[in-house]
Amino acid sequence: MSNIIPLGDYVLIEVIQEEILNDSGIFLMDSGKDKPGSGKVLAIGGGKVAENGTVTAIKDIAVGDIIFFAKYSPEEIEVDEKKLVLVRHASIFAKKTT
Questions:
Q1: Per-residue DSSP letters for 18-67?
Q2: Plot region of 52 (φ>0 → left; ψ -120 to 50 → alpha; else → beta)
Q3: What CA–CA distance (Å, rounded) separates 14 from 12?
Q4: Has residue 2 got a pLDDT over 70?
């Protein structure tokens, strides 16, 4: 994925699909629209550019972090048969700690 570089305040994320095991032992993919999306940060853009030209860098997340984002906001892309999303930094509202 090193050949994809997000621009501005976008963050490139590999989506984590949550699987649910039903009573008969069959795995079902989570399709709940009300739950936030989650994924692993693959790359981070340079930051938000203000009208006066100054750039505010993204400092609160790093490549490799597991983050949670609003599902309505991402731009979906597929690279090497992997589902990736580009999300604005403002749409990310939490990260998982170790």
A1: PEEE-TTS-EEE---SSSPEEEEEEEE-S-EEPTTS-EE---S--TT-EE
A2: alpha
A3: 7
A4: no
Pairing of strands 55-56, 92-95: unpaired
Hey, how many other C-beta atoms are within 10 angstroms of the C-beta on 37?
21
C-alpha to C-alpha distance for 38 and 92, rounded to whole angstroms: 9
DSSP annotation of 98: -
CA distance 55 to 42: 21
What integer pLDDT is reported at residue 26 of this predicted model?
64
Measured at the CA of 60, the angle between CA 59 and CA 66, to 5 degrees, comes to: 125
pTM of the model: 0.79
